[in-house]
Amino acid sequence: MMTRDQISFTPRAWTELGLLALIWGATFLAVRLALDEVPVLTNVLHRTFWAALALWLWVAVKRLHVPRDLGTWGAFLVMGLLNNIIPFGLFAWGQLTIESGLTAILNGATALFGVLVAALVFPDERLSARKLAGVALGLGGVALAIGPEALRGFDPRSLAQLAVLTGTLSYALAGAWARRTLGGLRPEVAAAGMLTGASLLLLPATLLIDGMPRFDLQPRTWGAIGYASILGTAAAYLLYYRVLAMVGAGNLLIVTLIIPPIAIVLGALVLGETLQPTSFAGFGLLALGLLVINGRRPRLWPRATRPRRATDALNAPE
């Protein structure tokens, strides 16, 4: 078994990691554009349903084994709730009030909560002094990004930021759940099952709250939905585990640092969004915390790779 220090970056890995960050960074913009015409739950249902369909087509083409036992499909339902419905829904609802760039910055808290949840759940994930220092720095960055005024009282903007942070906590819980229940599956199958579970749970809630989904949408809205579901979810999962196999889960934290600048630039160019200086300073402190948690610099040239795990591929930051 290869140690994590034996896992390195290649030029191809750097390229694909940058592409992954670009895809996910633009997903925040796509979700916000779709919200101009599509309600929150319907937005999330579009994203999970079309992404699940695309991944099942991939699974069929690759002729991968599909589990049929009720236990695994029950795990898919829970995973869909934790990794899709709750975070996708809370992020989308939050973006009705706060900037897409700030949402992307707060999304970085996923890694911080992931460290804390893993330390509570798994005996082999102890919270070392280095990790504790990184978490403290990162949480300080999150507090700085949301701004001192949000800590003094709750208003719509404060509630939106709290919703986004709750979504990142749900991502962390999903990572722990996947490690316990889905570790033996291929990542493509686990992702397809998870998104299917999310769609099945979402459908009755969407019909009850939003009503029947409309299909007479503007081309821009359909483009945003297509991007968020096919590229920002289905293709991003496939690309994520490709890069994961090349560089390892620790090095892949770097993608979390690249996503916010992309989302900030796209939000400014397309939506005219502007962020406070404290948001940028908070992102810098959050990035420092993530680097401290990682505890090492990535190598530029390869030595070896390690096997893919479904649990790693599902524990993605967006």
Q: What features would you describe in this structure?
A:
This protein is an all-alpha fold. The chain has one domain. The protein is 75% helix and 0% strand. The radius of gyration is 19 Å and the shape is globular.
Offer a concise description of the structure.
The protein is mainly alpha-helical and 318 residues long.
Approximate helicity band: over 70%
Q: Which outline best applies?
A: globular
Mean pLDDT, all residues: 87
Please indicate the count of domains: 1
Q: Count the helices. How many?
A: 13
Give me the count of strands. 0
What structural class is derived from the secondary structure elements? Answer: mainly alpha
Uncertain ranges: 1-7, 300-310
User: H/E element string?
Assistant: HHHHHHHHHHHHH
Q: What is the terminal separation in angstroms?
A: 29 Å
Rounded Rg? 19 Å
Largest sheet: none
- Strand content bin: under 5%
List descriptors:
single chain; about 325 residues; mainly alpha; disordered N terminus
